[in-house]
Design a protein that fits this description.
alpha+beta, elongated
Amino acid sequence: MLAKKYDLRDAVLLAELNLDLLLARRNPAKSFKPLPQFPSIRRDVAMLVPEATTHDAVLQVVRQTKPANLEVVELFDVFRGKNVPTGQKSVAYAFTYRNAERTLTDAEVNASHEKLVAQFKQGLGAIVRG
């Protein structure tokens, strides 16, 4: 009847929410973090690794190396095929560095990142692609 009165062509739905119940069930431990004040610096690495090398193995090297100011590690490409030797795969990772208290310099990030790349070469037998 109301749909005809207001010339509504589609179904009209009504919902009632008990906000007291919803607010009582919220988890105050989960909250929003403020946006970072200082910029991040991203470094990408593409490397050839043995086919058996897992993402977890790469992350283990990162955890053991503990690069200063490393905030995020992201796998963004896995490639097999042309220009990749048999028994190997090409993996590409993005590493995001940030300091919560100040802007990082390229020299600081490069030093941390070079240590990490050296560990990939040593620990995984990786060949870093240019």
